[in-house]
Amino acid sequence: MTALLELKNLKTHFKRKKVTIPAVDGVDLKIHKGETVALVGESGSGKSITSLSIMRLIPSPPGEIVDGEILFNGQDLARLSDNDMCKIRGNDISMIFQEPMTSLNPVLTIGEQIIEVLMYHQKLSKRAASLKAIEMLETVGFSRAKELIDDYPHRLSGGMRQRVMIAIAMSCNPKLLIADEPTTALDVTIQAQILDLMKELSKKYDTSILLITHDLGVVSEVADRVVVMYCGQVVEEASVDDLFEEPLHPYTIGLMGSIPSLEGDLDRLYSIEGTVPPPEHFPAGCRFSPRCPHAFDRCRNEAPVLREIGSRSVRCFLHDDKEATK
Amino acid sequence: MNGTTSELLKHSKKNNDSEYILEVKDLKKYFPIKAGFLQRTVGSIKAVDGLTFKVKKGETIGLVGESGCGKSTAGRTLIRLYEPTSGDIIFKGKNISKMNDGELRRTVRKDIQMVFQDPYASLNPRKTLKSILSEPMITHNLYSHKERKEKIQDLLDKVGFNPLFINRYPHEFSGGQRQRIGIARALALNPDMIIADEPVSALDVSIQAQIINLMEDLQDELDLTYVFISHDLSVVRHISDRVGVMYLGKIMEFAGKKDLYEEPLHPYTQALMSAVPVPKKKGVQVRERIILKGDLPSPANPPQGCVFHTRCPVATQMCSEQVPDFKEIRKEHFVACHLY
Fold first, then answer.
1. Which residues lie across from B58 on neighbouring strands?
2. Does B286 touch chain A (CB under 8 A)?
3. Hey, where are the domains in chain A?
4. A-contacting residues of B 12-71, CB under 8 Å?
5. CATH code of the domain occupying A5-92+174-273
6. How many CA within 13 A on the CB side of residue A113?
7. Element (H, E) at A181
8. What predicted TM-score, i.e. pTM, was given to this entire model?
9. Which residues form the domain of B100?
10. ipTM of the modeled complex
11. Per-residue pLDDT tens digits for B308-325
12. Strand partners, B222
């Protein structure tokens, strides 16, 4: 099975004065058709920059994709001209953002914002586009879609705005939907509605989803595969069942232990010492070593590579021997 | 006769009981809506609409709810950052709801402190760590200069800070460190009670765990009472002893955390619990999810009857007409619902 999207050694660096900040530093990632992949990490791990790199939305300068390939259907997006990229953006790959308040244009009606996309990419007439817009709004669960297309975004609640964003994103039937923290700004009951909707739509249109989140609960609800990032690198990649059953990387283990449980009682939460280092001060060797409870000398001197162990992979010296036995 | 005496005895015992550090009775906070050229009051937002609960000394009360349910307003009204519209707040036997500012400052201000959500916005960027921590002591005229210095060292030690950082400014610290400063500042006056309004919501999970552990350690060490306000049900379960679930300015259910989380009685609590995505675990069955239709109604115009009936999956005719009482269904388990 060939991947719909494949990142190979993607590096996105930012240059500030004379300092280079390696926000994304060698990310490999595959997304197959119809699959939902979750990209997990704390703030500063480079997960949002990865997604913006795929969309080629990195402000340049200061940012630049310095190395690597972004293969989408065999085409390298990193080397596409801006004009060609415009045809893909919003059409084959679309994106929804965390903040539904700021990602809609406040002076255009909901209808205008959906119609614009359809007229540009699908070359529909205004009339056909507006019919399609109503249909899309109905698909995302609005009962009074006809009136809604003449409403302005400020009249909608956060959850409704996120639905509108999903309607816009799905209107051209994209092959890949990138959702950057789509439910972080929403309440839990609304979050449940939106996650359900995303699952339903991805099944209906066979759309792949790249879900960026820091919430492991959300991950286990919707994702098929999980990629854990730390300091601009992938530290672990596994299917959702494998990952939650047996996390391998000490960072993943720490992350899971840090979440209080809704079901059982714990005396004390596990906490990872220290904080995520800023990108200009990434430690030598393994980037997690200063915070890792199992770190030994080799970790501080030598950088581990992402190794495959069966169907999953992990970037840690602790699992070196496991690979040998396989 | 026998029954009444024992009843009376029980009652008087309850009254004399000093185990409750805070008692809130029918607390209301309405914000006026002003409109027109003359800015006449045309209505009110019922942010907090009749809260009643008691807090025991040394325990942690959790207040949970979605945005707009009035949990933050409740916290701020408890500490009199907002003037309550009506109701009583009895703290250590004194009714503080109607005290004037001077009296408040002399008697209870230093005993109740607050920790805010946004560690970036709640510290003055132009003050050093030292002056941030000494300011509350100066305001309350406590300690000599030398004692203050010692006290600051002690505070930094308590929240796990390097004492060398004392002359640094807030921007030099990370989010988690700033929240530690916020906690140290709250502790500067040796309070009895801390109201923490979403203290960990702005932090990453690994940092969140550090702060929660710190708050628990401090509680044991200093015998603190917490009112912990959060939208995160799992965090609240972890830290609280008893939990109140709020919806549109009212408490829907209030119970010990075990009762509440293992057997939620109110339909809203049930829906809220089922909506939380939980990391998969071996052998744990996937729970049935109750998806609530629609959004939170506006607190300016709350629904008649039970405020939840517009989204409630089991609402009846009665729910849209009568406001349910907040009753004790089981021991220490209060619910406001017509089902019970």
1. none
2. no
3. 5-92+174-273, 104-171
4. 66-67
5. 3.40.50.300
6. 23
7. none
8. 0.82
9. 18-276+288-294
10. 0.76
11. 998 888 888 999 888 998
12. none
